[in-house]
Specification:
1057 residues; alpha/beta; 35 helices; 36 strands; 39% helix; oxidoreductase; FMN; heme; metal-binding; NADP
Length: 1057
């Protein structure tokens, strides 16, 4: 008895067409695999496909005695251009394939490809020369330049034809026509034939693209016949070669078809592999450091030679691991030779039934690759492990007799390219927070992936890439080093360099670094500001280095990973002559990893010979003196730097100047236009009852090309509440229509040298509600004011300011006699920060949409002011209406804070209030998997709120439905209605009450996830430790140690304040 193959719900006449994204079909298939598991079927217009996604089924359909390559509908359309070329021929059935395969196979042998080395090196040198000449500020489109490289290489090495694409700013017409041709072929495959006929515009463009492709092919053939050469290249073999079995040569039509096949397949897949390799190496700097060490050790500064090919084991491992995670041809098709079954009779498939193998997903099967299958780890390909893999586990080049004929060519080309690049350059991402986006034709490549190539051993050149894409100027086309400009308020430009480096994900460290850089000129320094990664490999000795960075669960920020990896790899006194200081941001709630990265940088730098200018500073975001601790450290920093470098403190005017441009009714501001950084509000509704603290559910259409996983964050760039903006305008006697232009004597996060309305400036560029720091109080005291105001300022203690959350604006309103200039007000305000919210949905629900579940902060001001305190981001989000545009970006959460790939693993979830957000995403994904027929374990949810009727979020909708589905057991704790929750007031109380169930879930192998405040996290951990103490009869200290050991890899937290 066979099992029916599951499929998504169908639409009449269209079937499952709507289930597949037309731009990047692979993403839809990946989500379907996560939802339906090892196999599913899709009913498309006029035909059905079966899709398999696991190693077991991949291996089974790789049996060439039972299955053959199937030319899928998209490849049938590609035949309109390439005919019966090697990749698209019907086998058996078309004799030309057999003749061409036997003639051309020797031309791509390892020995033959070895003879192409010099020509390959020639083309790679052109890429290197371009990057050197354009310099480190040039934003490189990695996929485009690797496409140039591989296209030029196949044309020159195989056909002795120079395309010279590096000598033109635009890609060759062939490449654009090829991309359009492949894309349209895929779309034509999804449409009925009559529709393709009626779409005359598309059909005409399609034929034009085919003609563009064939015109180059004919040009290459004509030039060779007119000017024969002695070189026995691939084109020579095509023109002159004879089939050893039949004695036949290739017909002119077969030559044209296969020449075009090689021009397409010979560059498209390799350029994708190279781009993915750079991406994964930059995202995993420890692997890049190992690769660089291997290249430096085995090749050094000498040119790579043909004898070096295949001699760098770690490089080979990097390439294999890249193709495991990103097989550039991510899907292939097969069909049974006869009626058969799969998986020992479980699933029945008929003869010639198209079976699509999702290599992309199968390459992540935990059965073969382990629980870290999603991680980039080249070590899994080293020391004989690759050779010991199960048969068919690694299939990026296809399979069997229809496998890629050009694999040796691509393998050698990629080695030369990667060695040449890392010999000469340090690479950094243009946007360190970039997460992989895909573009797809028949192959896949990273989309919108840009890098900078910094020549090694050059002068210091820092790239001030923002800590988040949301901080970038949407109109900027390049990212450059930011240094003190030669124009501005101070006409005397300091000459002593100062390098300010930051590692920041959420913006706090970047804001502190910006403050140091902005104030540098007034202390006699010329500041350069950049990310820590931008200084990777740079030994800077002509000025002090100030590093401001944070730890994220013990790991570096996204834009500091490469630097930390490089720093920790140094030996001896490599940093002798370097002077530095470090300030670290952290949160004491993360006891075991608090200040780990700042401490590491500070310690290692000193051990490697650098001179520490002053003791490391530490700011605790979980305490009340976060900003004050930086103020004190910064004051000591400037005092130390002036003494060591003998600079003088500038007196008089501040760092920025303002001139009035227009104060009439018109506004001059840049309108925010919808682009890839903007999402759209779909829904914004209240989840709680009147009178309860407001919780809201928001749904967004994500920016185009954005993907996410359950558990990830949505970073929002908010604006200040209009009420607070108008308060600031009134305090300084300005109107909302007032326009100004700002000039600055140092790096600033404010918009400079262009008109902007004061309302927009105060709305979006500065924080108006942040508590004043000791430094800012001192500045107010030094400003002209009355005796009464001076006394009021003297009476304020830093502790009182933090406790009452008194902002600079609050203090200025309470003390109207303080004559603080508006430009000074702007100068001392911190920059607007992004806020990260846990996504409360799963992409299985809707891959283009994401939801947030937020608490709206509107509470009586503890400062005693009449107006309530308004949370900046939550007030902004609460005000949004459907259709509004919101600047946003998806940010990955901690790697551990994602669901296990196996849905049969139980979950124990802890959350309170809006801490339910990511847990809802987890449960939504599990529910959809259960509805798709997968084996889903039950989850235990501990949730805390006030009462069942006020704020039991989603209790009458999602949670109720999922409980009926049998995937969740809800254990609430009602703080104001304990009689409805087993007399348990808080989550930790309910955990203790239900400790037997918690223990039972642990024994079943459950994963534990917690989302909530630091207080909730501490209380939950204490109760779990107490359970261990009781069950194992040990003291508290031993129970704590046991907790740490047994929860490693099984307990993930997402703590917020």
């Amino acid at each position: 008895m066979t099992t029916p193959i599951p499929n998504p719900p169908t639409v009449p006449f269209l079937g499952n067409v709507g289930a597949i994204d037309s731009e990047v079909p692979l993403l839809s298939h990946n989500l379907l695999a996560r939802q339906y598991g090892e196999i599913y079927q899709l009913f498309l217009i006029g035909f059905k496909i079966v899709v398999v996604t696991t190693y077991d089924l991949l291996s089974e359909v790789s049996d060439e005695k039972r299955f053959r390559k199937f030319i899928a509908s998209s490849l049938k359309e590609v035949r309109n251009g390439v005919g019966d070329g090697l990749f698209t021929a019907f086998v058996p059935g078309e004799e030309n394939w057999y003749i061409a395969h036997r003639i051309l196979m020797p031309a791509f042998s390892t020995l033959a490809v070895r003879g192409m080395y010099d020509d390959m090196y020639d083309i790679v040198s052109q890429l290197v020369l371009k990057w050197e000449r354009f310099g480190s500020n040039y934003k490189i489109d990695a996929a485009a330049d690797f496409t140039r490289l591989t296209f030029d290489a196949i044309a020159f090495c195989a056909m002795s034809y120079r395309v010279n694409s590096f000598y033109s700013p635009d890609l060759p017409p062939f490449i654009q026509a090829m991309a359009d041709f492949l894309t349209e072929s895929g779309r034509r495959a999804q449409r009925p034939g009559v529709v393709n006929t009626l779409m005359r515009g598309s059909a005409s463009k399609y034929q034009q693209d085919i003609q563009t492709l064939m015109s180059l092919v004919d040009e290459i053939i004509s030039e060779r016949r007119a000017n024969p050469i002695e070189k026995k290249d691939l084109l020579h073999v095509m023109l002159e070669g004879k089939d050893p079995q039949t004695g036949k040569g290739l017909s002119i039509e077969s030559i044209r078809n296969n020449l075009l096949t090689f021009l397409i397949a010979g560059h498209e897949t390799t350029s994708g592999m190279l781009t993915f390799a750079i991406y994964y190496l930059l995202k995993n700097p420890d692997t890049m450091q190992k690769l660089r060490e291997e290249i430096d050790t085995m090749i050094g500064d000498r040119p790579m030679t043909v004898d070096d090919v295949h001699k760098l084991p770690y490089l080979i491992a990097v390439m294999r691991e890249t193709l495991r995670l990103a097989p550039t041809a991510p899907m292939r098709s097969a069909a049974p030779l006869e009626d058969t079954t799969l998986k020992n009779g479980t699933y029945a498939v008929e003869k010639n039934q198209p079976i699509v193998i999702n290599i992309f997903v199968a390459h992540r099967d935990p059965k073969v690759w382990g629980e870290d299958a999603e991680s980039f780890r080249p070590e899994r390909m080293l020391d004989g492990k690759f050779e010991q893999l199960s048969p068919n586990a690694w299939q990026p080049f296809g399979f069997g007799m229809r496998g890629c004929i050009g694999r040796p060519f691509a393998w050698q080309e990629a080695q030369i390219t990667l060695v040449s690049i890392f010999q000469r350059f340090d690479l950094v991402m243009d946007d360190p927070s970039y997460t992989l986006q895909l573009k797809q034709t028949l192959t896949i490549k990273p989309s919108h992936f840009y890098v900078h190539a910094i020549p090694r051993n050059g002068k210091p050149r820092l790239l001030a890439t923002p800590s988040t894409i949301l901080s970038q100027d949407q109109n900027a086309t390049t990212t450059s080093s930011q240094s003190t400009p030669s124009t501005g308020a101070d006409k005397t430009v300091p000459t002593q360099p100062l390098y300010v480096l930051y590692g920041s994900n959420t913006g706090s460290s970047e804001a502190f670094a910006q403050r140091i850089a902005s104030g540098a000129a007034s202390h006699g320094f010329r500041a350069h500001i950049g990310t820590l990664d931008s200084a990777t490999g740079r030994i800077i000795t002509d000025g002090p280095i100030i590093a401001v960075t944070a730890s994220f669960e013990g790991e570096p920020a996204d834009n500091a990973k490469q630097f930390v990896s490089w720093l920790t790899s140094l030996q001896g006194e490599k940093l002798k002559g370097v002077s530095y200081a470090v300030f670290g941001c952290g949160n004491h709630d993360w006891v075991s990893t608090y200040q780990r990265i700042p401490t590491l940088i500070d310690t290692v730098a000193a051990e490697r010979g650098a001179q520490r200018l002053l003791e490391r500073g530490a700011g605790d975001a979980g305490g009340s003196d976060f900003y004050d601790s930086f103020d004190k450290w910064e004051a000591e920093l400037w005092q130390t730097l002036r003494k060591v470098y003998r600079t003088t403190e500038a007196s008089g005017e501040g760092g920025i100047k303002i001139e009035t441009v227009e104060s009439g009714s018109s506004r001059a501001h840049l309108l925010r236009q919808p682009d890839t950084a903007f999402g759209t509000v779909v829904q914004n509704r209240v989840l709680t009852s009147p009178g309860a603290p407001v919780k809201r559910h928001l749904e967004f259409v994500l920016p185009q090309g954005t993907t996410y996983r359950a558990g990830d964050y949505l970073a929002i760039l908010p604006v200040n509440p209009p009420r607070d903006v108008y308060r600031a305008l009134a305090r300084f006697g300005l109107t909302a229509e007032h326009e100004i232009a700002i000039s600055a004597s140092g790096p600033t996060s404010l918009p400079v040298n262009k008109p902007i309305s004061v309302f927009n400036l105060l709305s979006g560029y500065v924080e108006l509600s942040q508590p004043a720091t000791t430094r800012e109080l001192r500045i107010l005291a030094e400003t002209q004011n009355s005796e009464a105001s001076m006394n009021a300022l003297k009476a304020l203690t830093p502790e009182e300011v933090v406790a009452k959350r008194l902002s600079i604006l609050d203090i200025l309103e309470d003390n109207p006699d303080i004559k603080l200039p508006f430009e000074k007000f702007l100068e001392i305000l911190p920059s607007m920060r992004v806020r990260q919210y846990s996504i409360s949905s799963s992409p299985l629900w809707n891959p283009q949409h994401a939801t947030l579940t937020i608490s709206v902060i509107e509470a009586p001001a503890i400062s005693g002011r009449k107006e309530p305190f308004l949370g900046v981001a939550s007030t902004y989000l609460a005000s949004l209406r459907p259709g509004d545009k919101v600047q946003m970006a998806v940010r990955s959460s901690n790697a551990a804070f994602h669901l296990p790939s196996d849905p049969s693993v139980p979950l124990v979830l802890f959350g309170a209030g809006s801490g339910l957000a990511p847990l809802r995403g987890f449960l939504q994904e599990r529910a959809l998997q259960a509805q798709a027929g997968r084996d889903v374990a039950k989850s235990l949810l501990f949730f805390g709120c006030r009462t069942p009727s006020e704020d039991f979020l989603y209790s009458d909708s999602d949670l109720k439905e999922w409980a009926k589905l049998g995937i969740i057991d809800i254990r609430p704790a009602f703080s104001r209605s304990t009689e409805n929750s087993q007399n348990c007031k808080y989550v930790q109380d309910r955990i203790w009450n239900d400790r037997e169930e918690v223990t039972e879930f642990y024994k079943k192998g459950a994963r534990f996830y917690l989302c909530g405040s630091g207080k909730v996290a501490t209380s939950v951990k204490e109760k779990l430790t107490k359970i261990i103490q009781e069950t194992q009869q040990v003291d508290e200290e031993e129970a704590s140690n046991i907790f740490g050991r047994i929860t490693t890899g099984r307990f993930a937290t997402d703590v917020f304040e």
